[in-house]
Amino acid sequence: MMGFGLFLFIIGMIVCVMGGAAKFWKIFGIGILLTGSGMCIGIGSSRSRDFPDGNPEVVMFGWILLIITIVCIIGSVIYTKVKIKMQAKKDYENTVRANKEIAEAKNKQISISIFKKCRQKGLSSFETVEDQNALKIIAGTFGVSDLSKAKKYYIEGKKLVETKELDDQKKRLADKREQEQKKFDDAKEKAHIKGKKKYVSKLETDYMYGIKAMELGKSLEKTVLHNTRYQAKKQDWAIAGGLASGLAGGAAGAATAMEIQRKNAEAEVQAAKIRQQAQEQLIDLNATMTNLSPAMLEEKFQIDRVNEKLYDESNTYEKFKLLKFSQWSIKVLDSKNIEVKGEVELTQNIELLGSKAVLDGSLKIDVINSSGNIIGCGYYSAPGFDNTNLEEVGFEYARKISVLCIVDDYMTVKPDDAFECKVSPVSLWIIEC
C-alpha cells in the first residue's frame, strides 16, 4: 500500500508540474489532489512506534482524496465533451444563420435589380404575353428563369425599393424642415428687435467689449511696466565666501564665492530677457490701444447720433395703414412649408415734426387655407439691421418681400388649395433720418 501511495505521489507531482507550466489550472488542481492522496495513503500505511499497524484514518482520508480526484477527472472529461459539443452546435447554427443571411441579401439584391430594370423599361403589370416575355428576359439577366419566381422577385423588389425611397423622402423632408425652422426662428427673433436697438445693438456690444479691452490693457500695462524695470535678485559673493572660508577654510570660501558669482550672472541674463520681452510687449500693447481708441470713438459717435434722432412708435395701426401690399403669390415648398412673395410700398412720404423720416419695423404674415383656418405664419423685417445710415433703412427701400411661413400640421397641406395671406404689424416706428 505504501508503494501505491508513492506511485500516486509521483504521478501527482508530474501532473502538477505539467499543469502549472502550461497554466492549465484544472490539471494543476488534479495534480494537487493526486499528490495529497498519495501522501496520505503512503504515510498512513507506514509503521511506526506510535502506529505499529499504520494509521487507517489517514489512509482512509487518502482514499477519499483519490475518489474525489477520479470524480473530478470524470467530471472534467464530461464537461469538456459537452462544451465541445455545444460549441460545435453553436458554430453550426452560426454558419446556417450566416448562409441564410447571405442568401436573403442575395435574393433582396436580385429583387431590387429586377424591379428597377422593369421600372426603367416601363413594365408594371405582366398580363400580356409581351410583358411576360420582357420580364423573363430581365429576370434571366439576373439568373432567374422561372416566370412565377420572377413575378415574386418583382413584387418583393417593388416593396423594398418603395420603402427605401419613402424613408429617404421622409429624411430629406425632415432635413429641409429643420433648416427652414432655423431660418424662421432667426426671422422671428429679428422681428421682435424694436426701435433704435435695430441699428446700434451690434455697435453697443462692440463698444462694451472695447471698454473691457481698454480696462484689461491698462491692467496689463502696469504689469508690463513693472517688468521693464525688473532687476535680478543677487547674493553678495564676498560675504558668502567669507563665511564659508571661516567655517571650512580658504578653498571652500573661494569655491562658494565663484558659485555665487556664476548664479548672479545667470540671474542677470534672465532679468535682461524679462526686460526685453516686457519692452516688446509694451510696444504691442500701446499699438493695440492706439488702434482701439479711434474705433471706439467712432462707435460711440454713431451710437449717440442714432440715439439723438427723433423717434415715434405710437399708433402702430395708423402707421400700418401707410403701407400698401400687392402682387401676392403663395407657393407650397417641397418641405411642406409655404413661401409668400409680394410687393410693399409707402403710400406717402414720411416726416417727423417737419424732419425727413423713415417708417421701419416688422410684419407677421398668416397663411389661410380655403377653409378659413390659419395653417402657418412667417415674419418679415424691413432692411436696416446694424446700419446707422438711416436713409437706407425701413420700408422706403423694401419693395419686394419674401417670407418663409412654417406650417406645423404640414400633412394636411394641399398644394392646389386656394390660399390667402393676412398681414399684421409686429412693431412699427418712425425715426428721423
What tags apply to this protein structure?
8-stranded antiparallel beta sheet; alpha+beta; flat; 433 residues; Immunoglobulin-like; 3 domains
How would you describe this structure to a colleague?
The protein has 433 residues and is α+β, with helices and mostly antiparallel strands. The protein folds into three domains: 183 residues, no CATH class; 111 residues; 122 residues, Immunoglobulin-like (Sandwich), CATH 2.60.40. It is built from nine helices and eight strands. Strands 1, 2, 3, 4, 5, 6, 7 and 8 form an eight-stranded antiparallel β-sheet that branches. A hairpin with a 5-residue loop joins strand 5 and strand 6. Helix 1 runs antiparallel to helix 2. The longest helix is centred in the first third of the chain and has 65 residues. It is flat. 19% of the residues are buried. About 5% of the residues have low confidence.
- Extended strand count: 8
State which percent range the strand residues make up. Answer: 15-25%
The major beta sheet can be summarized as: 8 strands, antiparallel
Overall tally of structural domains: 3
Rg on CA atoms, Å: 47 Å
Number of helical regions: 9
- Protein structure class: alpha+beta
Overall 3D geometry? flat
Order of helices and strands: HHHHHHHHEHEEEEEEE
- Mean of residue pLDDT? 79
Euclidean distance between termini CA atoms: 122 Å
User: Which parts are unreliable, with pLDDT below 50 for 5 consecutive residues or more?
Assistant: 234-253
